[in-house]
Design a protein that fits this description.
This protein is α/β, with parallel strands linked by helices. It is 45% helix and 19% strand.
């Protein structure tokens, strides 16, 4: 009996040692994240938390079997190039890039490390992937806007401010999607009886000058296209729209919840959760070229009644009824 107990205990000990040895030899996976946001931005915390939670849901735990390295640029393109090189030098298993202006530097820094992108408007037109169904190369991810969204942006702006005859379009000319979206808005503008003008986003001074100059002529409104620079400077843009009594439509919900008049766009937080799923699949051996680029499928209209009253607008009941969320 004693001999049998000894053999059982000895065998159990060997099993424990084997499991421990396997855990010691199993390499911790590494993921790099390059974001256009500043590290102190509340949205940075929201998006990173959603990404980490998505990884947890796929059985990846930071500090156990995973390390995640974040780099925050605050919309600075030079910093994006620098941080892209830094992340590549760390030799991660996957890099996540947010926005076209940051995806470009990552692709330039590596053609070998798998890349998952989020918040890119036109990845095919921007030359980031071969096609949505077969992205090719080392890159795949999630788009936020198609160019046909342009008509919706102008439609909602005219519904809340039917007097609008001129539209200033804030876009990032350094971002391929910014130029493309401006062109798409320009193409449908005659259907809504408006003329459009491009407005720059390079820095706060350019934003202030552009808004002030545009507001000198009456019957104006604003469209803010999606870009890292627009999001980084959202508080300033919202403040300027209110100061100059300009009705404005924004690309993401946090603009409207932050005091903007209305927004129409996808759930960005959900993109980070879904991106975590793609990262997990790549960490387990799948290739980015085999994972199709996914479009946003749900767009939310958010209207801010308080912001409308502040610039003397009475929101029509039709737009309130169509809204997915009404901020009072």
């Amino acid at each position: 009996m004693r001999r049998r107990n000894f053999l059982l205990a000895f065998g159990s000990g060997l099993a424990v040692l084997a499991v421990h040895a396997h855990a010691q030899t199993q390499r911790v996976k590494r993921v790099g994240v390059l974001s256009y946001l500043a590290d102190h931005d509340p949205e940075a915390k929201t998006y990173s938390a959603a990404f980490i939670q998505g990884l947890n849901d796929s059985a990846w735990t930071v500090g156990t079997n995973l390390q995640v390295d974040f780099r925050w640029t605050g919309g600075d393109v030079d910093r994006a190039r620098k941080y892209a090189a830094e992340l590549v030098a760390l030799k991660p298993d996957v890099i996540v890039a947010a926005g076209g202006s940051h995806l470009g530097p990552v692709q330039q820094a590596t053609r070998d490390i798998p890349i998952v992108f989020v918040q890119v408007t036109d990845p095919v037109g921007g030359g980031f992937v071969d096609s949505l169904s077969r992205p090719g190369g080392n890159t795949t991810g999630f788009t936020v806007f198609d160019f046909d969204i342009s008509a919706k942006l102008l439609e909602f702006l005219k519904l809340v401010a039917p007097h609008t005859a001129r539209v200033g379009v804030f876009r990032d000319p350094a971002n391929p999607s910014g130029t493309g979206l401006f062109g798409a808005i320009q193409a449908v503008a005659p259907q809504f009886g408006v003329e459009v003008s491009p407005l720059g986003l390079r820095d706060p001074n350019e934003i202030e000058r552009g808004a002030a100059s545009f507001a000198r002529t009456p019957n104006g409104g604003l469209v803010v296209t999606p870009s890292g620079l627009a999001i980084v400077n959202r508080e300033l843009i919202i403040k300027l729209a209110a100061r100059h009594n300009l009705p404005a439509i924004y690309p993401f919900r946090d603009f409207a919840t932050g005091g903007g008049l209305l927004s129409y766009g996808p759930d960005v937080t959900d993109q980070y959760r879904r991106a975590a799923g793609y990262v997990s699949r790549i960490l387990r051996g799948e290739k980015p070229a085999e994972l199709p680029v996914q479009r946003s499928t749900k767009f939310d209209l958010v209207v801010n009644v308080k912001a409308a009253k502040a610039i003397g607008l009475e929101l029509p009941q039709s737009i309130i009824l169509r809204a997915d969320e009404v901020i009072r």
